[in-house]
Amino acid sequence: MYPLRRISRVLLAFLLVVLGGTVGYLILGFGVLDALYQTVTTITTVGFREIHPLGPAGQVFTMVLILVGAGTALYMFGVLLEALIEGHLRQHMERRRMDRQILRMSGHIIVCGWGRVGCSTAQYLSGLGKQIVVIDRDPARLQDLEYPNVLGDVTDDSVLEAAGIGRARALIAALDSDADNVYVTLSSRALRHDLVIIARARTEGSKSKLLRAGANRAVNPQLIGGRRMAAFALQPNVAEFLDVVMHDDTLEYRIEEVQIASESPLIGRSLKESALRQRTGALVLAIRTPTGKFIANPTGETQLVADTILIVLGTPTQLDAIRDHTNI
Fold first, then answer.
1. Residue (of 33, 9, 11, 8) closest to 22 by Cα position
2. How many CB atoms lie within 10 A of CB 125?
3. Which of 4, 232, 318, 324 is a plausible cystine mate for 281, CB 3.0–4.6 Å?
4. pTM for the whole thing?
C-alpha cells in the first residue's frame, strides 16, 4: 500500500499548491476564476500572458509559485506515470474488487495459512463448490492466487474481520506453528462463539491445547497420513474405497452427514418406520446421537430424535432427497 500513500500525498501537495496560488492571486486583486486560471497556467508552465498586470509583489509571488508549483506538478506526473507502469493502480483496483467480493460472501470457509496443508484443503473444498477465503502474511504466497485472499497477520482480529469471519461457516487454522494456531483459535472463538474451527496440530501434545482454546477439532496431518499408509498396507481395498468416496470427485457415490432438525417429521420414529432407504435410495451407514455416541450399522428399531446425525452413502441426487425427506 506504500505506492498508494505516495500517490495520495503528492496529489494532496498539488491541490495545496493550487489552493495557495489561487488565494495569493485573490489577495493581489484577481477574481476567483481568474485567480484559479492564473495559478494553473503558472504551475503548468504553459506560458500564457498574465490576465492582469502584475506589480513587484505579484511578480515575486509568481516566481515563487512557478518554482514550487512546477516542481510539485512534475513530481506528481512522475509518480502517477510510475504507478501506471509498475501496475500499482491495477493492483489496487483488483484488491478493491476482491474486498467487495469477500464482503458479499456468506457461509464461506476461511483457510489460515497457504502452505501445503492449506493449499490441499482449499483445493478439496473448491472441488466441492465451496467458497474460500485464504489468509497469509507472505505476499509471495498469495501472488496470482485464484481464490479470494487477505494479506496480513492472521493473529490480528482486523484481518479475520476483513476475511468475513462474521459471515463464515468455518475456519481452518493451518499455520506452520502450534502457537500461531492456538492464538488464531482463541481470537476466532472470541469473535464467533458458533464458528466451526478446525485447527492443525503439529504434535499430539498440542491437540488438547487447541481443543481447550476453542477448536471443534484438532487434526494432526502427519498422524492421519501415517495411519492411511498403514491402512493401505493392511486393508488396501477398504482404504481405497473410503478414500475414493470421500475425496474422488469423479465417483458418483459419496459419504455425507445429514442432521435431523428439531421440526423434522421423522422425530420419534424408528429407522425402519422412516423408510429412508426405500424412499431415497440412500444407505444409512451410522448414526451419531445428540450425546456424541456413534451407532454403526444401526438396526431398524433405532429411534430418531432431534439433532441426530445420519452418516449416509449415496449419489448426490439420493443425498439431496434424504435431506429433503428428513427436514420437510
1. 33
2. 18
3. 318
4. 0.64
